[in-house]
Design a protein that fits this description.
By secondary structure, the chain is an alpha+beta fold. Helix content is 54%, strand content 15%. A five-stranded antiparallel β-sheet has the order 2-1-5-4-3, with helices on both faces. A five-stranded mixed β-sheet has the order 7-9-10-12-11, covered by helices on one side. 21% of the residues are buried.
Length: 457
């Protein structure tokens, strides 16, 4: 906007300067010409009294010399009766031009090498017409024109520069508030809820700043209400969780009882995390800093130990590969566990009992890939499944499970893709970008070399 104003002002001022300077320069040139020929007319008129008295060559030569124009003035007296024609000075005009002036009796100008000549007719006492020729050089005609044009050009340039400076100051006054508004919008979009814009500048931008600040205040208030609501709703779960924990404690010993008590304890931890996160206004999933993260192989083994017991109860075959060695990733342990639970929970929820599933971990050059696949019917619309909140609810899906996985991968610069698995069902690939490594081009199943998979258990 700033440069647009400057360009517009530059164009308008330049046109105005040209519109006035060019005609004024031509007028100055014409005035200089009129001045030069006016001086020539005065010189010619100074000889008229002498010519009306005498036509003697000697006397006329003294008059011409006294006028100081002997080099640029000439007198042409025609022959009358027995008197011969007299020509004083250097003749520059053509005889035809001199004859025309003598015949018409009117002053005239003629172009000659180096300038122009003024031919002035003068009546003699004998009734004949003499012609006084005054030479006007080009230097006299253009005297002072160059300096005047230079002054006009300097004034025009000064006007243009001044207008550009004024337009630039006006542009800054308009652009700076707009830039601050843009910066405030970016900061608010990045999650800096304290971003506000000074309410200054032109009236329109000032009103926009007022509207932006009001919107930011409303966003903060809405988020605060959302956090309080999430904390309150999560807190209401404590009572049924307490009942579950007491009931689980009375189950006695055994693998099923231990798993139930572990699940209740984990659920209590998750609820406490939700309440603390909502109260502290911090995101539940954040990018891990240097040195943070977890061992993906250890987390996968731990969660598979939980889900494998349920798989045995439902007669599901399962396979686990790629977890023999530590695989460090820049993801919090709880976040990776939540993502795996979401995917494995989908397998148990949306496939029939006895459906096989597998979890594979691949350590690539630039990323770690976690593959969760099953032998179910597959997902007919992967894009709709990836979209948050698109679950219809008819099949018990809210559409949030895959979104948890997507946000986990994208927090590291990776992504999530859904395809067909080698088991015949769905394969969900979590691409977790490793910190400090340049990503490589990857295809549908990732630019990694797959390990030889063990048989289903």
């Amino acid at each position: 906007m700033r440069w647009a104003l400057v360009k517009v002002c530059l164009a308008v001022t330049t046109m105005v300067v040209v519109a006035f300077a060019v005609p004024l320069g031509l007028v100055i040139k014409e005035m200089a010409r009129d001045r030069a020929f006016s001086n020539a007319e005065r010189e010619a008129a100074a000889l008229a009294p002498a010519l009306s008295i005498t036509t003697d060559r000697g006397k006329l030569e003294r008059v011409v010399a006294a006028a100081g124009s002997d080099s640029g003035m000439a007198v042409h007296i025609p022959a009358v009766d027995d008197t011969a024609a007299v020509d004083l000075g250097r003749q520059r005009a053509a005889d035809r031009d001199i004859g025309t002036v003598r015949r018409l009796g009117r002053a005239s100008t003629a172009e000659v090498p180096g300038g122009s000549t003024l031919l002035q007719p003068v009546a003699l006492s004998s009734g004949a017409i003499a012609v006084v020729e005054v030479f006007v050089p080009d230097s006299d005609v253009s005297r002072g024109v160059g300096a005047a044009w230079g002054v006009l050009a300097a004034v025009g340039v000064a006007l243009v520069l001044g207008s550009v400076a004024v337009a630039d100051r006006l542009g800054v006054r308009m652009v700076q508030p707009a830039q601050r508004l843009v910066e405030g919008a970016h900061e608010l979009g990045e999650g800096k809820l304290g971003a506000r814009v000074p309410e200054e500048g032109p009236n329109e931008l000032r009103l926009a700043a007022v509207a932006f600040n009001s919107m930011a205040d409303q966003v903060v208030q809405l988020l605060a209400n959302e956090r309080e609501l999430a904390a309150d709703l999560s807190h209401r779960l404590r009572t049924p969780l307490t009942v579950l924990r007491l009931n689980a404690a009375s189950l006695g010993d055994g693998p099923a009882a231990d798993q139930t008590r572990a699940a209740v304890a984990q659920l209590e931890r998750e609820v406490d995390t939700i309440i603390r996160t909502a109260r502290d206004a911090k995101p539940q999933t954040a990018a891990a800093g240097p040195g943070a993260g977890c061992d993906a192989a250890e987390v996968v083994r731990e969660r598979m130990a939980f889900w494998s017991a349920l798989a045995e109860d439902e007669g599901r075959k399962w396979r686990l590969a790629g977890v023999e060695r530590p695989v460090r990733i820049p993801v919090a342990r709880a976040d990776l566990a939540a993502a795996l639970d979401a995917l494995l929970g989908n397998v148990f929820r949306h496939t029939a009992e006895g459906t096989a599933f597998a979890v594979d971990v691949h350590n690539a050059e630039d990323a770690v890939i976690v593959l969760v696949s099953d032998a179910g019917p597959g997902i007919p619309d992967p894009e709709a499944a990836m979209a948050r909140g698109r679950g219809s609810g008819s099949d018990g899906s809210t559409g949030l499970g895959l979104d948890i996985v997507r946000r986990l991968a994208e927090s590291t610069g990776g992504d999530v893709r859904i395809g067909s698995s080698m088991l015949g069902g769905t394969e969900v690939r979590i691409w977790i970008q490793l910190a400090g490594r340049e990503p490589v081009r990857r295809g549908h199943r990732g630019a990694v070399r797959r390990r030889r998979r063990p048989a289903l258990r």
